[in-house]
Amino acid sequence: MLQGLMPGPMPTLLDYFPPTDPYLDVIHVDDDILVVNKQSGLLSVPGKDPSLWDCIEYRARQTWPSAGMCHRLDKDTSGVLVLALNKPAHGFIGSQFEHRKTTKHYVARVSGILEQDSGLVDLPLATDWLNKPRQKVDYEHGRPAQTEWQVIEREQEATRVRLVPLTGRTHQLRVHMKAIGHVILGDAFYAEGADFTAADRLQLHAAELGFTHPTTKEFMTFSAPVPF
């Protein structure tokens, strides 16, 4: 469990109590794809520990046994996820993620007030091996990572922003926002003190996802309302 307000709290998945209402929030389903709105606190795929079996993929397979995850969201991130319901669809959609043919944007609430209206964070990222699974900016060994951001609304002590990841590194949005001095509120890995306790969950939501349908070849965009 998290203890007090010490900097850099290290969360654990051993006390895993995923939300169950709704059990599975379906946005769209057809013969090829299943699009859902994942709740914060629910894993995308099973964890390594046997107690971490409950996840979006498991819940989907109870109704659609062939469902397979095409990409993932962090446990504490909510929002749009797509699963494939057959192998050809999985390969077709997976290739789009691999070759950056999808479109996606996130909404986040970050600490402090961003003075500019928009910008680009271009900082290489690598695993922080001493504090795994945290990531860090690493100019020597990091992989290229770019995030576009745009202010949606300025609050009294926080800013609501639209985030567009141009690359897909682990924890990219979370580390990039912290690196420019505006950590995402409620982030158990990267926020400290008041920035961590300012929200009862990670204030990061995958609001929109677009990709080409594997059969119709139509470019489709799905969205989920921001829950904070």
From TrEMBL:
One of its GO terms (molecular function) is tRNA pseudouridine(32) synthase activity. It comes from the Bacteria. Its EC number is 5.4.99.-. GO terms for biological process: enzyme-directed rRNA pseudouridine synthesis; tRNA processing. It holds the Pfam family PseudoU_synth_2. It catalyses: a uridine in RNA = a pseudouridine in RNA; uridine(746) in 23S rRNA = pseudouridine(746) in 23S rRNA; uridine(32) in tRNA = pseudouridine(32) in tRNA. Keywords: Isomerase, rRNA processing, tRNA processing. Responsible for synthesis of pseudouridine from uracil. Dual specificity enzyme that catalyzes the synthesis of pseudouridine from uracil-746 in 23S ribosomal RNA and from uracil-32 in the anticodon stem and loop of transfer RNAs. This is Pseudouridine synthase.
